[in-house]
Amino acid sequence: MINIPDPFKTTSGWLNEEEGGIFWPQVLYPDIFNYLQFYPTELGNTDLSDYKQCKAYSYYSCGWLQPLYYHEIVVGSKFCILKGECRKLEKINDTFHKLWVIIERQSAKIRAAHCTCMAGMGQTCNHVAAALYRIEAVVRLGFTNLSCTSQLSKWLPNRKEIVPCKIKDIDFSRDKFAQHER
Prior knowledge:
The chain has 182 residues and is an alpha+beta fold. It has a domain at 17-140. It has 5 helices and 4 strands; from the N terminus they run ααααββββα. The chain has helices spanning 17-20, 29-37, 45-49, 55-61, 126-140; strands spanning 69-71, 79-86, 97-104, 110-115. Strands 1-2-3-4 form a 4-stranded antiparallel β-sheet, with helices on one face. Helix 4 packs across helix 5. The chain is elongated, with a radius of gyration of 24 Å. The N and C termini lie far apart (68 Å).
């Protein structure tokens, strides 16, 4: 059994969305639907079928959800934690709800979630769903998979270091491998 740290007491190892986004699991809408559908939930079937009209999606799209932070738990763990805060709908100037989600890194299966709101004890409140929609949007927009051309020398690594020199000092003869008998 993995000893999972309290996400809001552990201060080291957290990566913000810009740094940690490339490590986020590939959570897609069917993963969110399965998690919310098969847990006791305050979200109804109508909210899941028309998710862009529900309160959870509006928390994400209107900016009520603060940026998420990523933690690997332990090096090489098959799980990761994403944590964040979401503004309360009723009281704008009040403290934020704190939430976290545990996800399998390879399969993107959502294993557990929690929020400090009243419904958060059931693991499927609107604040948690908003965080899941944000994760799905980051994956869908391609921020989790950097292309090889966006990374330094991944698509065609340099074989040797090239130093500047004068043209008269450059050897233009062919390699031994390129010379063929005629």
